[in-house]
Automatic annotation (TrEMBL), chain A:
This is Acetaldehyde dehydrogenase. NAD(+) binds at residues 11-14, 161-169, 272. Pfam families: AcetDehyd-dimer. It is an enzyme of class 1 (oxidoreductase).
Automatic annotation (TrEMBL), chain B:
GO terms for molecular function: 2-isopropylmalate synthase activity; 4-hydroxy-2-oxovalerate aldolase activity; manganese ion binding. GO terms for biological process: L-leucine biosynthetic process. This is 4-hydroxy-2-oxovalerate aldolase. It comes from Azoarcus indigens. The lineage of its organism: Bacteria, Pseudomonadati, Pseudomonadota, Betaproteobacteria, Rhodocyclales. Its EC number is 4.1.3.39.
Length: 304, 349
């Protein structure tokens, strides 16, 4: 079967983990990895796994895009360079999956709104944040049953799994995730809290989701909707697990989740990183399936 | 005890009643009460007082409870009435943001504790730099300091200083530390920080060590001490400030506050406000003994009632699981898991 060829931009933990997930996909094939440091471990690993590599940034990839038939690129660099990376690749008709907090394209949480994005043939979709991927499905599971006045999520991350980029820009993480709880989760108002815990051995990612419903919560229907949604997420993140709840207290619904990773390149406790790479892979697969079935055709983006 | 070697040392007191004390009041201190307490503290010569939600800026949440007013309302009501005291705020990155710091500054806050867990200072550079840009008196506040050793605290404090912090605090959030623990950490900070960078200590009284620990901090080089009048704060409360002021006076440490006025504030204003006697009781002692974040106290008591598992057992388990400040959600989660494992059946789902 034909596979859609992909490029990975950024040779850090996320980019390297993506190689493994994409390699497993029946519809995706990782072909290029782009870094900026010739000595990076990620690039060396990519070469071992049979990918072509460049340490010259996106510009090192551009001349090969057409001849190698690259159609989808994953950007795991930083919000600061994403816009430029996206512009250059979109011009060549490559669709971008953005794993940075740049969020210049529509926000995507696969089980909630991936279908819409694929139907619209969006050329850039953003994966929000790890906390967003882990919690917004639950917020949406409540809001599709009953109005949610306010949703609040608490993400606990192991210290070892939080890189320097996130640490130095925690406010962006907060703003991006809060806004996505509203836009994608469907809550009227959203708030995101992040806790970084240094315990050894590292703790598995935990997420707590609180929703305040409009009126008394319809417990049976909300619980059913949440369990169904958890099943949807488990299709691409098997370690997505309900620990406690849903618990009801007045109009407050509380759900306590845990996310263990697959342990591909990243350790299992780093479910926060794994859920990002898994969601990004799932997103790319949906686009790839549509392209392969001839239902959608990526278009080059004219730059104004 | 003589006036000893600390005679003439100057120490800046920072009152926490209207921030840490919010925890002990389930965030239910009114704007009027805040103004009453703050003006009394101002009149007693307290140079800095903190006034926000217990969890600081951005604290209003389901996780931490909703206060009776917004932080901006509290700050502006208090700041506009101060004759000499500066109003400070708490900012924990991951919860509060720079937008909220700007709003607090606009409302009149002029000092900030930028707080991280004691190993995660590198989540604060943006916020510390921004506070300095605003011209605020800026502190790097290393919470749960017992969970990092002296060398580690020194290294984290150095990071805070490099971002622009003018003061670095050893923060005994769990009230777990003993004087020797405080001495080691403050001394290690003093060795690596620039001479002009101040060191502070923030204690909790869960083992009854708030005052002894604060004195140990001063001996090792600290010049700022947090406490709260009558000890109104999380857990068994903060270092009771009027008691500490009295000890300082006996030892010849200069605080600049009026001791008798401070005693009157404690007795006439703060104690009548308390919903429960803030003291070392079974649960708050458990916090100090097990090294658990003091704010967990009332949450654990509520979870105990709801899920039928003793609060002390929940707190010990939270300590074993190495939960840190901000993880209040894990209290209910832990209580539910324990109730299930113990086969406790309660009405709550």
């Amino acid at each position: 079967m034909n596979k859609i060829k992909c490029a990975l931009i950024g040779s850090g933990n996320i980019g390297t983990d993506l190689i493994y997930k994409i390699k497993r996909s029946p519809v995706l094939e990782p072909v290029w990895m782009v870094g900026i440091d010739p000595a990076s471990e990620g690039l060396a690993r990519a070469r071992e796994l049979g990918l072509k590599t460049t340490a010259d940034g996106v510009d090192g990839l551009l001349p090969h895009v057409l001849e190698d038939g690259i159609q989808i690129a994953f950007d795991a660099t930083s919000a600061y360079v994403h816009a430029e990376n996206s512009r250059k690749l979109n011009e060549l008709g490559v669709m971008m999956i953005d794993l940075t907090p740049a969020a210049i394209g529509p926000l995507c949480v696969p089980p909630v709104n991936l279908r819409q994005h694929a139907d619209r043939v969006e050329m850039n979709v953003n994966m929000i944040s790890c906390a967003g991927q882990a919690t917004i499905p639950i917020v949406n599971a409540v809001s599709r049953v009953q109005g949610v006045e306010y949703a609040e999520i608490v993400a606990s991350l192991s210290s070892k799994s939080v890189g320097p980029g996130t640490r130095a820009n925690l406010d962006e993480f907060t703003y991006t995730t809060s806004s996505a709880i509203e836009k994608v989760g469907g809550a009227k108002k959203g708030k995101a809290l992040a806790i970084i815990n240094p315990a050894e051995p590292p703790l598995i990612m935990r997420n707590t989701i609180y929703c305040l419903t409009e009126g008394t919560p319809d417990q049976a229907r909300i619980t059913e909707s949440i369990l169904q949604m958890i099943g949807e997420v488990q299709k691409y993140v098997p370690g997505y697990r309900l620990v406690n709840g849903p618990s009801y207290d007045g109009n407050k619904v509380s759900v306590f989740m845990e996310v263990a990773g697959l342990g591909d390149y990243l350790p299992k406790y780093a479910g926060n990183l794994d859920i990002m790479t898994a969601a990004a892979t799932r997103t790319a697969e949906m686009f790839a399936e549509e392209i392969l079935a001839g239902k959608i055709k990526l278009k080059t983006v004219e730059v104004a | 005890m003589s006036e000893s070697n600390l005679k003439g040392r100057k120490v800046v007191l920072h009152d926490m009643c209207l921030r840490d004390g919010m925890h002990a009041k389930r965030e239910q201190i009114s704007v009027e009460q805040m103004v009453k307490v703050a003006t009394a503290l101002d009149d007693a010569g307290i140079p800095y007082l903190q006034a926000t939600h217990g969890a600081g800026l951005g604290g209003n949440s389901l996780q931490h409870g909703f206060a009776l007013a917004s932080n901006e309302e509290y700050i502006s009501a208090v700041a506009s009435r101060m004759k000499q005291a500066k109003v400070s705020v708490l900012l924990i990155p991951g919860l509060g943001t720079m937008r909220e710091l700007q709003a607090a500054y606009d409302a009149g806050a002029r000092s900030v504790h930028v707080a991280t867990h004691c190993t995660e200072a590198d989540t604060a550079p943006q916020h510390i730099a921004f506070a300095r840009k605003l011209g605020m008196d800026t502190t790097g506040f290393l919470m749960m300091s017992h969970l990092n050793d002296a060398a580690g605290i020194a290294q984290q404090g150095k990071l805070m200083e490099s971002y622009g912090a003018q003061t670095v605090y050893v923060t005994d959030s769990a009230g777990y530390m003993l004087p020797a623990d405080v001495t080691a950490r403050v001394r290690a900070l003093r060795e690596v920080l620039k001479p002009e960078t101040e060191i502070g200590f923030h204690g909790h009284h869960n083992l009854g060590m708030g005052i002894a620990n604060s004195i140990a901090a001063i001996e090792a080089g600290a010049s700022r001490i947090d406490g709260s009048v009558a000890g109104l704060g999380a857990g068994a409360g903060n270092t009771p400030l009027e008691v500490f002021a009295a000890v300082c006076e006996r030892m010849g440490i200069e605080t600049g506050v009026d001791l008798f006025k401070l005693m009157d504030v404690a007795e006439d204003v703060i104690v009548p406000m308390m919903d429960h006697m803030v003291r070392v009781d079974r649960e708050s002692l458990t916090l100090g003994f097990a090294g658990v974040y003091s704010t967990f106290l009332l949450h654990a008591k509520r979870a105990a009632e709801r899920f039928g598992v003793p609060a002390r057992d929940i707190l010990v388990e939270l300590g074993r699981k190495k939960m840190i400040g901000g993880q209040e959600d894990m209290i209910q989660d832990t209580a539910m898991t324990m109730a299930r494992e113990r086969g406790v059946v309660t009405g709550a789902a």
